Amino acid sequence: MSHETNTIDYMEARFGAANRPRSVEVRVPASTSNLGAGFDCFGLALQLYLTVRATAVPTFTEPCRIRTYGDASSKLLPRTSDNLIFRTMRFVAERQGLELPPLRLAVRNEISLASGLG
Description:
This protein has one domain (about 5-110). It is about 20% helix and about 35% strand. It has helices at about 5-15, 85-95; strands at about 20-35, 45-55, 65-70, 105-110. A four-stranded mixed beta sheet has the order 1-2-4-3.
């Protein structure tokens, strides 16, 4: 049995039947730091978010397809496997001994790039 088959079996056992799309969504707030004399000890979470929905699509031939949405989505962000979000997901999976199935990533970004918000 190939490693990829093991990954799909793992995903099916963990997230549902083979004929249903398996997806997960992560939402993180923008933040800022250096608030006065806090010396990076104080930070502020803002009501701006980066939301990523990853859906396993075993029929895709490439590792991932990425769409960006939102006012702060940028044409500068890679929409291929060079994307930092996808690279991080692949790194974490490999550290766990897993191989990611082909993914569709939907990225909604409300955080402006190069604005000092992280």
